[in-house]
Amino acid sequence: MSFTLPGAPAADESAVGQRSVLIVEDDPIVAEVVLSYLRKNGHVAGVVTDGLSAVARVLDERPDLILLDRMLPGIDGLEVCRRVRAVTDVPIIMLTALGEEHDRIGGLEAGADDYLVKPFSPRELMLRVDAVLRRTSTPFEPQAVVAAGSFRLDTSQREISQAGRPLALTVREFDLMAFLIRHPDQVFRREELLKAVWGWDIGDLSTVTVHMRRLREKIEADPGAPDHLLTVWGVGYRFAPGAA
């Protein structure tokens, strides 16, 4: 089931230059507040209230961002995240009332790029939304192509390839890998990566750990014995590009 607040703009000429956000939330009060804030910030947004409708809407409309509640009727947010990730790398911010570490890690491992624990500040949510959309809309950077070993970063296309093979990365995975490619053989603490990639001065360090694990699964021949994304025990991580 889906609905939109009265007066919300349709995705026609009024949406030119705007970004589309799909809210997946079965609490009408939360959905109304989030939708109102998104509209005030210039975004076009719609709401669906169950998991199956969310997956169908994503496949049909391809939004620029998904705000995904974890607890949903039908299939839950984790399953929605997995099904969406099977077909698209659209950014996903998960909204959850489950604040335990294993719950947050579960959302990240299912493919979410970010998360907020309820109750959250609508202003903080908008900052997260704008940060994600700003990253995905940046057309290019001065140094558009960077090579490190067998890895090639093309910021103008937001693409990273390994030995000529494009990698299927989520928004945060791309941002993390791009940062590491620009800084080969340097050791970074998780706090430093959280600041540089997520823009958080304070945050859950497991966010970095989970994204690093997901990256290893995509680029390492043996994720359990990585050749490129190395753990420096007691410090953090180092990217070893290897030979070209």
From TrEMBL:
Classification via Pfam families: Response_reg, Trans_reg_C
InterPro entries referenced in this protein's UniProt entry, alphabetically: CheY-like_superfamily, OmpR/PhoB-type_DNA-bd, Sig_transdc_resp-reg_C-effctor, Sig_transdc_resp-reg_receiver, WalR-like, WH-like_DNA-bd_sf
UniProt KW keywords: DNA-binding, Phosphoprotein, Transcription, Transcription regulation, Two-component regulatory system
Domain Response regulatory residue range list: 20-133
GO biological process: regulation of DNA-templated transcription
CDD domains reported in the protein's UniProt record: trans_reg_C
GO cellular component term, pick one: protein-DNA complex
Name listed for the protein in its UniProt record: DNA-binding response OmpR family regulator
OmpR/PhoB-type domain residues: 143-241
